[in-house]
Automatic annotation (TrEMBL):
The chain crosses the membrane at residues 45-66, 78-97, 117-140, 152-170, 182-202, 257-278, 299-325, 337-361, 381-404, 416-437, 497-516, 528-548. One of its GO terms (cellular component) is plasma membrane. This is OTOP3 protein. Belongs to the otopetrin family. It is a multi-pass membrane protein. Pfam families: Otopetrin. Keywords: Cell membrane, Hydrogen ion transport, Ion channel, Ion transport, Membrane, Transmembrane, Transmembrane helix, Transport. The keyword Metal-binding does not apply. The keyword Ion transport applies. Its main location: membrane. It is found in: Cell membrane. GO terms for molecular function: proton channel activity. InterPro entries: Otopetrin (IPR004878).
Length: 563
């Protein structure tokens, strides 16, 4: 191929070298580009198979622990996950010190990947996960006389893994690595599989929760002057492993229960960032696909959205504080659950109506869809749809339990209405956000100019002097400012709705994240399904629900900015 030979000729020092991928199955391809594409697909296939096998192996261990605690114990699962963590640590350190330092290793960076809000959430959830491991180490150290050494070693390795992975994702989440393609893909997939297994273990393992709940109930009943035997179903073999210092133990126990959801959130967020990095391995981004100027976040032109959203946040914060004070008592008042559900029942329909109106306005707009290949946006859509399944699934389980139980009191009716409205709100918001993410950023009236300019640049037909270029930039800036200051009513409504939904999703993210779990604490669904079954359902759906709210904030901010 003469074209390929010409490209492999010696280039100037400042010209980046293209590293085409190679794979032994496709070594006989005549075209270098074709061999590169086939090798990329093969590398993704084999690294994906590696992740699938690791996930199935870990899932088999965790399932065996659940159904046969004698043959496979929790310590065995921890040992397997510790080995995987150590392997991931070795690969991450090798990537930081070796792969990324090679010449021409990172020629391109994906501007859409690793948004500041998602990297910030990695740091936030990672910090909380480190605290969770510290509490677990402290709790196990106090009870070292009846605890295994593995219960101290596993969270210690976890702290090192979290710190290293958070540093790696903060600095390299935008990388489009161009060397050691297959080894990097396998390392990323191994790390994704490890995070998925950590999430699966956190969802299904209620051993420490049962132990802590048992001891907390016993302590509270002792302070209340009641006999511990009044709740026999909470009292089991954990009474043989009692804290010598009740105050310190209670701090560790409460901290562990409060921070537990953050660990599952951290695993999910890391998986999403790592997946985008995996898709970007070997990706070469052309210059006209890279945005030269990004729309900035500004509050101009919005009034009602911030007002309504701020009101929802303030009222939600008051409801949440009341709920936390009442729900932490030995016997939570039914009134606090009524207030909590009532707040949701008022807010969710407003959010649904706003999303429906926004979707209708999108349909009326003349902005074309952005059809450029974008792995980050594709993942955003998948994550929004997948994460919504958490709340939708919990809601359906709750609906079945509430309808099947006989009484039709106020709390039962409110919980049923809450579940139905939550399903509808998730669906309408997903449609609005996904449609908005696929709209072009270009201001109205500039589509044709931008397309013509891109075509000229692509064919090298644009020959202007520095002075003419400056005049064109000045004209484009003035045109954009004029367009922005005279936003159409459609764009104004879209910005109002987007900002309102951003604030609503923030408060709906804060409340369950920091301990507002009425679905678990009201006792209705738990008594219907049983403690262990409902624990798995809630720990599967709750982290996905929190992740959905957090991810929706990022998507809605994107919709707001592009409007």
């Amino acid at each position: 191929c003469h074209h390929c030979k010409s490209r492999s000729a010696p280039a100037p020092a400042d010209t980046p070298k293209i590293h085409y991928e190679k794979f032994w199955l496709y070594r006989h391809c005549s075209s270098v580009q074709q061999r590169d594409r086939q090798a990329q697909k093969a590398g993704q296939l084999f690294s994906g198979l590696l992740a699938v096998n690791v996930v199935f192996l870990g899932s088999a261990f965790i399932s065996s622990m659940i159904f046969n605690k004698v043959a496979i114990t929790l310590a065995d699962v921890w040992i397997l996950l510790s080995i995987l963590k150590v392997l991931c640590l070795f690969w991450i350190i090798y990537y930081l010190l070796g792969t990324s330092q090679q010449p021409h290793a990172v020629l391109y960076r994906d501007s859409h990947a690793g948004a500041i809000w998602i990297r910030g959430s990695v740091l936030l959830f990672g910090s909380c996960s480190i605290l969770l491991n510290v509490f677990q180490i402290g709790y196990s150290t106090i009870l070292i006389h009846c605890k295994s050494r593995v219960e101290i070693v596993f969270p210690s390795i976890g702290i090192l893994f979290i710190c290293t992975q958070a540093y790696f994702l903060w600095h390299h989440s935008k990388d489009c690595i161009q060397v050691q393609h297959n080894f990097t893909r396998c390392g990323l997939m191994l790390t994704i599989a490890t995070n998925l297994l950590l999430w699966l273990l956190a969802v299904t393992n209620d051993t420490l929760h049962v132990e802590i709940e048992s001891q907390l109930r016993e302590v509270e009943q002792r302070f209340a002057g009641k006999a511990p035997s009044s709740h026999p179903h909470w009292c089991n073999e954990t009474t043989l492993c009692t804290c010598p210092n009740t105050t310190i133990c209670k701090v560790f126990q409460k901290g562990y229960i409060l921070l537990y959801p953050f660990n599952t959130e951290y695993c999910l967020v890391c998986c999403s960032v790592l997946y985008v990095m995996w898709k970007n391995v070997g990706r070469r981004i052309s210059h006209h696909h890279t945005p030269h100027t990004k729309p900035k976040f500004k509050l101009q032109g919005v009034v009602f959205g911030p007002l309504l959203g701020t009101s929802a946040v303030i009222i939600g914060a008051c409801v949440f504080m009341m709920y936390q004070i009442q729900a932490s008592s030995l016997v939570p008042s039914r009134q606090v659950f009524v207030i909590y559900y009532s707040y949701y029942i008022v807010l969710l329909p407003l959010m649904s109506v706003g999303a429906v109106i926004g979707t209708i306005i999108h349909a009326l707009e003349k902005r074309e869809l952005d059809t450029l290949k974008n792995p980050t946006r594709s993942l955003d859509v998948v994550l929004l749809m997948g994460a919504a399944l958490g709340q939708i699934g919990m809601s359906y389980f709750s609906i079945v339990a509430l309808v099947a139980t006989g009484p039709r009191d106020l709390l039962n009716s409110l919980a049923l209405s809450y579940s139905v409205l939550l399903i509808f709100q998730n669906i309408t918001q997903n449609v609005f956000v996904i449609d908005g993410l696929h709209r072009q950023r270009t201001p109205p009236g500039k589509e044709e100019d931008t397309k013509e300019e891109q075509n000229r640049e692509a064919y090298g037909q644009r020959r202007v002097s520095v002075l003419e270029l400056g005049q064109e930039i000045r004209k484009a800036s003035l045109s954009y400012i004029q367009t922005y200051s005279h936003l159409s009513w459609k764009r104004r409504v879209l910005r109002e709705i987007s900002f309102f939904l951003v604030l609503c999703n923030i408060i709906l993210w804060i409340m369950p994240t920091f301990g507002g779990h009425p679905l678990f604490e009201n006792g209705m669904e738990r008594s219907f399904y049983g403690y262990s079954t409902w624990f798995v359902i809630v720990n599967f759906g709750l982290p996905l629900g929190v992740f959905y709210r957090m991810h929706s904030v990022g998507g809605l901010l994107e919709v707001y900015v592009t409007a």
